[in-house]
Write a structure and sequence with these properties.
The chain has 240 residues and is mainly alpha-helical. 74% of the residues lie in helices and 5% in strands. It has one domain. The protein starts with 6 loop residues before the first strand and ends with a helix. The longest helix is centred in the last third of the chain and has 40 residues.
C-alpha cells in the first residue's frame, strides 16, 4: 500500500506538503550552517571556517576537473550551494523523519521525490545550456549540441540530451528513495511488535548498518550530481 500523502491544489497545480516542508527545512539548515561557520572570518581560521573552506575547495576541485578555470569560477558559488543543499537534503530522511498520527510523513529527504529531483536536474541543465549559448553563440551551440561530430549524428545527439536529463534526475532520486525505503522496512522489522525476538535481534543491527551506508550514499550522490553538472556544462560549452 502506498504511503499516505498530504497535497493541496493551487491554480490547477497539485503541491505536496511533505516536499515543500522538507525543502524549506533543508534550505534553512544550509543557511544556518553557512552563517554560523562564516560569521567570524579570520586570517587564522576557526574549526568551523576550516570546515566550510574545505568543502569549498573540494567543490572547486570537482569543477576544476571538468571545466576551464574561467567557467569553474563562474559556477563555483552555484556548485558549492548545490553540494551543501544536496548533502543536507539527502541525509534528512535518514536522520530526521516526522510522521503524524494520520500516517503522513511531513519531513523526509526532498530528493526522494522524483519531481523534486527532476526540478533540480532541469535547473542544472538549463544553466549548462545557457552557458553553451553564451560561450559559442546560438548557432555554434546548436551545432555543438546536435551536429557534432557529424550531421548524421543528429538523432543520437537528441537522444543523448534526453538521457542526460534522466541520468541526472533518476540517479539522485533512485538512490535516495531506495535508501529510505529499505531503512523504513528494516525499522518495521526491528520495532514491529508482531515479530518474534529472532527477527527483531537480526533487523536492529542491519538497520544501523544500512543507515551508516545510506549516509555514505547520500554524500556520494551529492558529489555525483555536481560532477555531472560540470561534465554536461563542459560538453555543451565545447570544453570536453
Amino acid at each position: 500500500m502506498d504511503e499516505p500523502t498530504s497535497t493541496f491544489s493551487f491554480l490547477g497545480l497539485t503541491f505536496n506538503w511533505t516536499t515543500i516542508i522538507s525543502t524549506l527545512i533543508a534550505m534553512s539548515i544550509v543557511v544556518l550552517i553557512a552563517v554560523l561557520l562564516t560569521r567570524k572570518v579570520a586570517i587564522r581560521p576557526s574549526k568551523g571556517q576550516n570546515a566550510i573552506e574545505y568543502v569549498l575547495d573540494f567543490v572547486r576541485g570537482i569543477l576544476g576537473d571538468q571545466l576551464p578555470a574561467n567557467l569553474a569560477r563562474q559556477f563555483g558559488l552555484y556548485a558549492f550551494t548545490l553540494f551543501l543543499f544536496l548533502i543536507v537534503a539527502n541525509e534528512m530522511g535518514l536522520l530526521l523523519q516526522v510522521k503524524m498520527g494520520n500516517g503522513v510523513t511531513y519531513v523526509k529527504s526532498p530528493t526522494a521525490d522524483p519531481l523534486f529531483a527532476f526540478t533540480l536536474a532541469i535547473m542544472s541543465l538549463m544553466l549548462a545550456h545557457g552557458t553553451g549559448v553564451k560561450a559559442l553563440g546560438f548557432g555554434g551551440y546548436l551545432k555543438n549540441m546536435f551536429f557534432k561530430p557529424y550531421v548524421a549524428m543528429f538523432p543520437l545527439n537528441v537522444v543523448e540530451q534526453f538521457t542526460n536529463f534522466l541520468t541526472l534526475a533518476l540517479r539522485l532520486f533512485g538512490n535516495i528513495f531506495a535508501g529510505e525505503l529499505m531503512l523504513n522496512l528494516l525499522a518495521s522489522l526491528a520495532w514491529g511488535t508482531h515479530l518474534n525476538g529472532f527477527w527483531i535481534i537480526l533487523a536492529f543491527p542491519l538497520e544501523i548498518a544500512w543507515q551508516a551506508f545510506s549516509l555514505l550514499i547520500g554524500g556520494i550522490q551529492a558529489y555525483v550530481f555536481v560532477m555531472l553538472t560540470g561534465v554536461f556544462t563542459a560538453q555543451l560549452s565545447g570544453n570536453e
